[in-house]
Amino acid sequence: MSKLSRAAALAALALVASAAQAQFAKPEDAIKYRKSVMFVMGQHAGRLGAMVQGKMPWDAATAASNAETIAMLSRLPWPAFAPGTDQGDTRAKPDIWSDNAKFKANAERLQEQTAKLAAAAKSGDEAAVKAAFGEVGKTCKGCHDQFRKE
Ligand code: HEC
Question: For site-directed labelling of 120, which of 13, 60, 67, 142 has its Cα 20 to 30 A away?
Answer without folding.
Answer: 142
